[in-house]
Structures are given as C-alpha cells and as structure tokens.
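Here's what a typical entry looks like (CBS domain-containing protein):
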Amino acid sequence: MTKVADILRTKGNATVHAVKPDDSMLTALQQMAEHEIGALLVIQERTIAGIVSERDYARKIALKGRNSLDTPVREIMTAHVHCVGPDNTSDECMALMTQLKIRHLPVVGADHELLGLISIGDLIKTTLADQQVTIAHLEHYISGAHR
C-alpha cells in the first residue's frame, strides 16, 4: 500500500504555494494561474488558516457578482482544513476526499509542520501505478514464470 510519504517523494518538488488571509482573491487567482494549480493553502503565522480553490472563486465570487480585487481570501476560504500525515495510505486519503468531497489534502508531520500537499490527481496517478504493478504480478503468476 502506497503511503503519503511515498507520494510526496515521487512528486519531488515540495513547494506548497500559499497566500495570506488578507491577500485579495485576485492575488490568489494570479498565483494559481502562474503555477497551474487549482488550490492554495492560506497560511497565517506559519499555521494553516484555510484553503482556497478555483471552485471557491467560481461559487463565492464570480456567481455572486463580487469583485476579486476587493474580496480578501479569508472571506471565501474554507477554514476547517482536513490534513493527513505521511503514514496515511493513498486509499485512506482517497476515501477521505470522497467522503468530504474535497480535492486537496495538506500533509503535516508530528509537530504539525507542513510537509506538502496532495491532490486527487496525485492519488489517481498513484492508484493507476499500483494497479499496473498488480497486473504485472498477476500476469507473471498466470504465465507460470514464477516456477
């Protein structure tokens, strides 16, 4: 079973992009576009204060006719952020994301330090790789090459 630590190691770049609660949504959108990502953590004084996504923008700014330049991130971010640890499995993360209908999970260590961020895309990629390994093992077994 693949662990979150393995996923982070595979991703390589440990950069987690973030904004501050008082940053404008325009700043957040510009950062998401620049880094080609769908969500940003909201960090205040080295602590996760929330998470904000393109979906938040679409539903809480665009559809309500608000202005992204005048709206601070804190007004639309999700403040209650679910986190996982490096020892959680990909299956546990997938179940949590499915249950909560979320697409991103921050990864925190024992001292609550931020280790990274995993997305539903990371989990799908991991699941597909795990399935390919299982298929290869089964094909090897069925062909009798194990004897």
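The chain has one domain: 4-142.

More examples are in the samples folder.
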